[in-house]
């Protein structure tokens, strides 16, 4: 078996293992799901549910939002039929499974609800409090929040045991990952029902803890911090992106930021009180990415090809001088290490605190939600390929050279290095270092 084949086989086994995260409790039957919020995620979720043959009630607060959502769904199905991906009958059947309405009373008869309104805690709490009054006892109450505290949402109801996070990814009818967020009081039966629903939707569910950023976004933030830091130290956006592309990602971090819109990241940083000198400056100068024709790259009218922009290098150089960061030429191996190893380090912290159950789960998250090349297994599998001792050595060296304390190796990583162990046991179907085991051994 080639290295790439072995990595793929490992991932498949890790996915099977992750799918067992639902536990042994009997899942409740779900045939009808209400989706609250008919925006980007709500529309995608309605389709994902209908594609699995489930009846959907799609709810928005006003006719306008609802009609826009339903129109997008119709157009998407028509497009899929026109391209021969589904038959015209299938398009009709699926669309017919989705009924729209305004007002949460529409959720009353459903077995489960997935909330996908704006990312605002007060609003979500208000909705859950009303859903608590509306839904029948035993119904599943899920939030698609990408980062809010699931316990704070659950506390707005009198049934926190039935509240869970289902963190889907956009587009929700295509992307397979679901981080199933277990709140403090979420019951085993609720987790089992959530996993059964996710699997029925053809998704890849992974159980995660309720900590900021859950697993994927929390690791992604470390990568983002280092990407920005690499610019200040002298790398160009093209060099950083090319390093990840050559590793096997379809896209590098800066091209991705330009595609998503720099204002999205800024909003999330503001909520967390975080700053990113370069990204903040680009935002301030109106360079929001593709939609404004310029971000980390520049774009020709009607063309999404990222073109290098000397203005960005000037802006970065100015910031580096102001901050006293010396600029240099950075070799590609270092760029790659600085992007990937801090994610591994953060995952070690995640495992230590039991916020993910197994290192294999982390790889499943990254392969299915963040485009980690399957031929490379995942970040933890990749770390094992390098070896824990070498990862510790490199992280320590980078921490020393940059003075960045976040790069210091996590205790679990140090322990694996000292004991000559791996995150992932390649011989046993994706079983890997477990969060609890990591904690006990600490
Ligand atoms: P969006 O702005 O596209 O859609 C939100 C919808 O909620 C709008 O149609 C709005 O009218 C509706 N809404 C607002 N208040 C409402 C109420 N009181 N009752 C009913 N409907 C109401 O947002 P989105 O991008 O779909 O995100 C929705 C949620 O999903 C957020 O929590 C977000 O963090 C999360 N999420 C988004 C993504 C993504 O990539 N867009 C990915 C994962 C998770």
Automatic annotation (TrEMBL):
Specify one Pfam family: 3HCDH_N
- Which parts of the sequence belong to the 3-hydroxyacyl-CoA dehydrogenase C-terminal domain? 213-299, 335-422
Residues forming the 3-hydroxyacyl-CoA dehydrogenase NAD binding domain are: 32-210
Q: Which domain of life is it from?
A: Bacteria
Keyword field:
Isomerase, Lyase, Multifunctional enzyme, Oxidoreductase
The UniProt record lists the keyword Oxidoreductase: yes
PANTHER family from the entry? Answer: 3-HYDROXYACYL-COA DEHYROGENASE
Q: What is this protein called?
A: 3-hydroxyacyl-CoA dehydrogenase NAD-binding domain-containing protein
What organism, scientifically named, is this protein from? Muricoccus vinaceus
